[in-house]
Every structure is written in structure tokens, then in C-alpha cells.
Amino acid sequence: MTRVVGHSLPRMDAPGKVTGTAVYAADFALPGMLYGGVLRSREPHARLLRIDPSRAARLPGVRAVITAADAADVRYGGSVKDEEVFARDRIRFAGQPLGAVAAVSPDAVATALAEIDVVCEPLPPVADVAAALAPGAPLVHEGWAGYTALPILHREGNVCNRARIVVGDVERGFEEADRIFEHRFTTRSVHQGYTEPRAAVAQWDSAGQVTVWSNTQLPFEVQSTLSEILQLPPSCVRIIVPGVGGGFGGKLRIGVEHFAALLARKTGRAVKVMTTCEDELTAAYARQPAIVELKTGVSCDGRILAREGRLWFDTGAFAGSGPGVASVATLMLAGPYRIPNLLLEGFAVYTNKTNFGSFRAPSGPQANFAVESQMDIIADALGIDPLELRLRNIVREGEEGPTGQVLAAVGLEECLRKVADAIGWANRRPGPGRGKGLACGWWTTSGGSSGVYVKVNPDGTVALNTGAAEIGTAALTGAAQVLAEDLGIELADIHVVSADTLATPYDFGAQGSRTAFAVGNACRAAVADLKTQIVTLAARQLGVEESVLTLSQGAVCVADGGPRVTLAELARASQASGGGLIAHGTFVAPPTPYDAKRVEGHVYPAFHSPSFHAHAVDLSVDEDTGEVSIHRYVVAQDVGFAMNPAYIEGQIEGGVAQGLGQALSEEIVYDNGRVLNANLTDYKMPTALDVPRIETILVQHPSLVGPFGAKGVGEPPNIEPPAAVANAVASAAGVRITSLPMTAEKIALARLEQKR
Amino acid sequence: MARTTLSLSINGECHELSVEPSRTLLEVLRTDLGLTGTKENCLDAECGVCTVLLDGVAVNACVLLAVRCRERSIVTIEGLAAGGELHPLQRAFIDHGAVQCGYCIPGMILAAKAYLDEDPSPSEDAVREALAGNLCRCTGYQKIAEAVLSAARAAR
Amino acid sequence: MRRVSFDYHEPTSVREAVELGARFGRDGRFLAGGTDLLVQIRRGQLGPRHLLSLHRVPGLDAIEIDGTIRLGALVTHRQLERTLGFRGALEALIEGAQVVGGHQIRNVATVGGNVVNASPAADVVPVLLALDAAVTLQSSEGERSLPLDAFASAPGVTACRPGELLTHASFPRLPAQSATAFLKAGRRRAMEISLVCVAVRVTLDASRERCLEARIALGAVAPTTLRAHAAERSLQGRPLSDEVLAEAGRAAAAESQPISDVRASAPYRALLVATLVPRALARCRERIQEAA
Q1: Among residues 66-125 of chain C, which lie with CB inside 8 Å of chain B?
Q2: pTM tops 0.90
């Protein structure tokens, strides 16, 4: 029984948040600060012939106008270095930055932006994946072959990666199959919908170093990207994250930090830049639209014998996260199933849209929607219960994943059975127009390293110094709970300092469901070292053997209640003569072995400490309008070990809400490269009246690696809602919707079509 | 556009300001007065993060001209905790795990307060309806509704 | 981002308001709640040089229930929702007001602003139309009244002359054996611009077996809120069986002129009219029976 970790303790940053005193990047300001704004292209595809800032620069209150001429001619980017700060001679998406203005007020900025002269020659946009792959299609990047890129990628023309998994022989598998099922699914782009816009304040000092306060999820990555853009060593760039109002992956890559830094350099003043709602819906890192083609061969008793799957991501104007997402997609197309023959491909395709990015479980909802919808179609065709079909095919403990990794701590059967039981699976159609559906899946706990410093203060409290940003998940509270547990202190005794590339140790970042896992483990490593220091000092002070000492209740004592000395006293003693009690702890997840022969162009060949999950939903469909009403929604998620049950529930409840948005109402609507609904009136996120109560069941099959056996929990809840809902709608209304979002309109018109 | 002088009562304190009429209450609060507890996002009255109380009633500060607020009483999140004591709603939001990233929370708490001041024993449906103008992307609203219901019960 | 700039005035009487209106003409706009106007100004869709705020003009925020019901232009949606006198036969006024935005919007947004904004998807306007409402306009030339039916001619375009102020909307008391109902379809359950909304009024004869009179108003399926006259006529003198209601729904759908846009397609909007009109009529039928 644990004392601190594993309990639903209130998060450490709650008081600041409920009183409005917590400062987010959007709130951050410096005296004498200027405001910055970005001029964005209206054309989705064009030759940029001329951009003339001179009239704008002369306006009252304007202190600088910058364009590509003011930025170094460098291309940056994660897997492919194809991105530029401002378009130089080619515009590749509507919303692409062309220039920026710094002025004394937001009004002056707005006026100046309108006065920047842009002359461009529109070109026909490559509007979608089909257009990009058509024979003779124009190239979004004519110079693609000359870009620096990860050598492992398979790039060709408008395809900036093709990732592939090959296992066995799918053709032979299809020959052996009794039935073959082929389906096509499509999904639209959805936005993370964080309520705090992206924001950055930049200020240069006299030594030519810049500090940027921003709401990035990855301060160290932004430091690296910005140093490339500014052509400075990273040590000249300091990123500090005051507070983040939601990220969900949309605040991973550089957002407005470079505009703020360049404007601040030119003006010699601090400059603040924020995105507008319109910027977010046109020029942000939303989820890639996807096309999935899935061909699955099964035996007559429902065993999956072969699967051939392709997933095309519209990655937009720049590669960005595309190559990685295309790789992860292949593991999601396999799903948590035992399939002896596989040919799975993920493509990231350039188009003239914003460069889409990473949104909570990138590729997950799209691939899972296809895989789990098809499972139900197969079940229906074979006359097998959908739960039973899954149980026949899911991977088990010790079996292999699609790339040959050995799977441990596989809690999937328990998740499936519990969720089916909770929803009342025996009665799948409780009434006319009403039905139940389920879906299951798996996901990773991302790797990457984390470092922490832990030091004991002279009053016995402890400072946890981490490079990770708290983005809202309470991951740092979870990590602090681990620290408190190991050190024999209370959560309230810990103060957290975080996310400052100068003052905190390196952290791979708040992404991939890894933060509590990795920072928690780094804390464990730090405590191991700190304990040694503490016990050595205490043994000397108390005159006892080190082996009889334990840490408990903020002190070090002899096991059976003998002499004790408090951490506070030890800290003071060490400060006076030993430099203080402080330890450095690091953690990096050990690589997961897999069969490299099975993969090509693959940036993400194995899921580390994988989690498993199942969702079930009970809903009704209005017979005429097609509107969906959800009666119950149940999630069973294998979290390994629940570090803080209340906040894990919070992740599940919020993730399902976001997933239901993608399932039923959210889409960024494009017309030939232009967004038609770039405002919150017409981008429909669920309100409090739209989200049902979510029932959560926490399943715990401890991981081998995570702190106390924990696995990553943040992303998975986003994965299964579209498929679970699609399956329930099929059960309730007798129609199978294969495109997201599954609006009432689609359902109603599908029923009408069926009646004919 | 001529500036006008204006006296605003915010959290019981009087502030003398000189503002252009096009300035919204949200801009005045955040930029002129440094009260950043009230948040900015869509600026279109669609998301509710800018919710404040105007004479006790929940409104979106982003579509309220500051000059319209003279002789009205404004309460922001900073004015809720009386004498250093958290308001029961603030307490309940902490205790029920209703706070994640926290950016929607000031607006959410004020909207909840305005509603409970009118209807001290709401159903969960009524609470959700009262908060329908406050978007939250992190929590799925569940623990928020639980916190509000709990605060309502505690007050009775 | 747009630069927002205007001169601001706070008249303290209707007379002063219309004088300012006359002075500024097309360069001026009256400001009521501001939840539509200020958003449109910020988005650059409107750029009035003068805003004439009405909040200090007394007498515009009253609801009077008499032989006629008068709603002052500054009556908020919140006031409509809470007016006990509208429970019962005038329930649709409450139902229409309740679905507009969230509480923050309804606390501030006004009936007058909603009518003058003339969005074809407005929610309260169809209800007023189904109640045979008229609007009263004041200008420096005097006062005039218009049927609401003749007020809006296109999205955002009304019969208001430059500088003319809408002071109130009014409608006659309903005859006995009457009920109203309002239904809305949207992609989500709140904060929604209607895909389609319908407001109906039904009056039955003394025996409560046949329909004496009906009004059917449709929102979001034409350039303005629309009365479905043929559908209304199809109900006259007939018992309100489900078949008769369904027929009225089909007739209303045929009279509507929906477009396809980012919110919904035309065929789906027509389907919604054909579905929601009978449902709203059935609700009226039930309400009249219950009241008896």
C-alpha cells in the first residue's frame, strides 16, 4: 500500500489556477513591451513576386516590419528541413506567414498589417491527397530532393515519407482466407481546441542572447529550432514556459516564438505575439486528414489471417510531424491483434494546406476508426459477436506486436470484458433506434529522456527542478507524488520549478503520454542518489550504521523509533559544510527490441510500455434527423499503475470528450485550400450539454519500466471514440458511416438512401 | 476617436481610467489594469474564457465596451476569494479534480457562481446548461459539474 | 486582426436617440446588447463611424402583457426566458430565447438587436413571426409600424431607414385553444446557429377537434425567416392527425429555399423542415389538450 503515489491528491498548481493568479504565456507581459502580429497569405498556392513593407513601416506607432529578407535563408524542420519562417518566393498554404509587424498597440499592428504590399501570382492549389498523387501533379516542393532529411525516410515528389511494415506474405494469407473484406474510410482535420492561443514574449539582452516566454510543450525543441532560425548556438536562446492553457500536441513545434524573437531583435524591445482564433483554425498543427484503405482476410471462424492497409495523411505544406505520424499509423493499422501476414503502409503527402501536426495520439483515431469499424463489419458478416471476434484475435501476454516486439503487461482482455460487462453487452439493442458499440486499441508511452534536480531546502521542503512543462494533465503532480513517496515526505512539501532551458535539466518534452512516466522515473533516480547523501550524513550525525536508517515523515530515523534527525536539520548541516543536499536524476526508457527487417522508412518501430484500452457506448439515433444521443459511455484503460486516479479519470473524461467531437461534430472544412469555418461559431467543439457522463474503469497491469508500473495515460482516450460510436450507430440505425465526422446529416441521409 | 474618462468598480475597488470607446472591458482588465485572471481567446463571445460578473450576472467581457460599464459592479476571478479565504466554488474545483490546464476555470467558476446565486439547488442538467457558454477542452466537464453540485450542496 | 474605431454616444431618451440617428444616418448604428454588432465590427463585416448606445434610454426594456404583448427593444433573452406570463400558450417565446448562445449571451443580447440583425437563422424571430408580430420604428420623422413579416428582406437587410430606431415589437394576445412550440436543429446542443428552426402557433376550434388557424415560421431555410403559408393553409379546418401534420411538414419543406453551406446541405435542411414542423405542431396539439 503506497502512501502518496496512487492516491487522488489535489494537484499542486490548483490554487493559482482557481484564483486567477497563475500566469500563462498569454498573460505574460514585460514593461515597455511592443505587440507583434503576423501577415498571413490569403492564397493557398502562389509565386510570391514582391512584398513591400515600406508603407506599413512609416505608420505611426510601428516600430518594425519584417519579411523573409530579415530572416536567415535557412530551412528547418523535424524529419525534413523544408520549413521557412516567412515565405520567400513561393506561398504554399493560405495562412502561411509572409511578414510580421511590431507596434505600440494591437490596433497599430492591425493597421500596419493591412498596409504591407504583397504581389503574388496565384497557382492552382494541390488541394488534397488525391490531387497530390495524381499523375503529373504539380510539386508542392519542387526542390524536395535537395532538402536535408532523415536518411531513413522514403521520399518521392509529393510523398515526404512512406513507412511500411511487412510480415509474412499477405497474398498467401488472402488465398488462405475464407472471406476478404475491403473498405475505405476518410477523416477530416480537427483542431486541438486549446482555449489559450499560442503566445510568446521575446526579449534580447545586451550580450546578444534572447529569452522567450512561451506556452510550448517542448521548450528544448523550440530552443533548438529557434537557434537554427537565428543562426545562434542554443546557449544563446533561452525558453521559459510560465504556464500552458492546454496543448494536446498543438503546441509542440515552434508557433510564434520566432516572430517574437525576430521582431524583438529588430526593435531592441520586448515583443509579444499571439495567434488569433482564425490563425489557429487555418495555420496551426491540427490533425492530419486521412484516407484509409483496409483489406482484411479472415477464416470462417473469425481469425484474422492477413491484412493489407494503407493510410494516406494529408500532411500539408511542410513535412513536420507527417513522416513520424505515418510511421505510427502502421502500428495502429495492425491494432492490438495477432495477424500473421501484414503489409501496412503509411504515407505523408504534401498538399497546399497548413502543415498539420501532432494531435493527441497522432494517427490513432484515424487508423482505429478504420480498423475497429471493419472488425464489426466482419463480425456482422460472419455472424460472430463483435466482442467475441475481438477476443479471438487480440494479442496476449508474451505474444508479438506487428514489428516483432514482445508484449508484456497486456491488460486488453480485462479491459474488453469489463467494458462490455459495464455497458450491458448481452443486450446490444435495448430498443428501437438504440444500440451499443465497442472498440479497442493500444498505444505507446513515448521514449525520450528526462532529467531532474532534487534538492532539500533548509526547512525540510524539497525543490523538484524539471525541464518538463506542466500542460494541464497534472503529470508534474504525479511525478512529485512519486518523489514524495520515495523520500518519505508529503506532496505539500514539494515545490516545482519547471521548463526553463537555462535553469532546468533537459527534458524530451510534454508529449506522447510520457511526462509523469519519465519525470517520475527521473525522480526515483534522483532520490536513490539523494538517499545516499542523506543517510550518510544522518548516520554520522546519529552515530549509527547507515543500514539501520529509513526515511519517514520528513526525517531519518532508526527503524524501530530510535534517534532521528529531520531532513531540515540535515539540509542545514549540509548547506553549512557540504554544499547542500542535491541530486541529479535521469531516465530514458530502454529501447524496445523489434525486428528491423519488418520495417522500412519507419521512425517509430515499436510501442514502449504499451497501454491497452476498450471503449463502449450506448446511444440512440433519431429516426428522422439522425441526431445521436449518448446514454452511457464506458472506458476501461490499462494504465499499469494509477499514480493519481482522479487526474487519470480527468484525462479519460477529457480525451473522450475530444474524441466525441472528432466523431460527431468537428471538422475543419476546406474548399480548394481555403478554410471555410475558421471561427468557433462554425468549428463545433462539444459544450457541457454535448458530453455525456463518462464512466471510467482503471485496469492495472503494471509495466516493467514505468514508476510503480505506470504506463502513459494521456493520449489513449482520444483513440477509440469514433469507432465505438460508429459501431453503436450501425447497431442503432442500421447504417455504416465511413467518414468522420459522423454528423446527423450523414446518418439521416444514409438511412434515406438505404430505404430506397 | 475621443477618449473618455471612466470610473469602473471592479471587485469593490474604484478605478479611474481614460479609454477609447472601442476598448472592451476585457482589454481594460488585462492590459490597463493587469488583471489577467480573466482570460482571452476567441474574442467572439463563443468560448466563455472571458466571463466576468456584471451586477452579479455572467457576461462575456470581450464583447462589452468598457464605457458601458460605468456605474455597474464588476467582479472578476481575482475578487472571489474574500479576505484570503477561497470561495466554496474555488475550494470545490480543487477538491474534485476539476482543474486541468486551468485556462477556462476563472470564467467557468464565475459562470457557476452566477448560476448558483439564482438557483441554489440545481440538477446536473441545469448546471451543464448554465455552463454551456464556457468551453473546456481538458476535462469533458464532468468533474466541473461535480464540483459545482458539491459546492451547491455544501452551501445548503 | 482589424482596427476597430468609432465615436460613441449615449443618448438618454428616445428623442435624443433618433436625433443622433438622423444626424449620422448610415454612418451610425444603434448599440443594444452588442453581442452581434461588436463581433461583426471586430471581424470587419461592419464599420460604423458612430455607435449610439441605447442602454441609458429609459422605457425600452419593458415587457407589457395586456390585450397586446409589447416587448421593448432592449428586453434581453434572459428576461424573455424568465417571464412567467409566457408559460403556457406563449411557451415558444421561452423555448426560442433559451437556445440562443449561452447564459453570457442571453444576459445581454436583446430582442431588438436580434430582429434588426436580421439573420435568417435567428431563433426568436420565427417565434415572433408565428405570433403575427409587428415592429414599431421611431425616427426624427415620427413613428411607424410594420408587420415583422415585411421587415427583413435579405440577411442583414431590413426596412429600417438610416437613423431609424426599433423601439418595440408587439403581437396580439392569442385566442383561446391556442398553443405555440419552437424546435431547433443544430450540430451540437448549445452555442449553436440553427441548421433549421421552426416556430408554430396552432389555434383549435371550440371542440378542440379541428384547426382554426395555424402559423408556421421557418428559420435558416431562406434569405429571411419565412412563413410557410401553403403549409399553414393545409391545416385550416382539418383535424390534426399525424398524417395531416406530416403533410404540412412536406408542404413547408417545399416552400423553404434552403442552401447548402458549411453547416448543412440543402437536402438535409429540407428533411429537417419536414421533420420538425410536424413535431412542433404535435407539441402544440398536446399542449392544447393538456391545458383543457
Answers
A1: 78, 101-105, 107-108
A2: yes
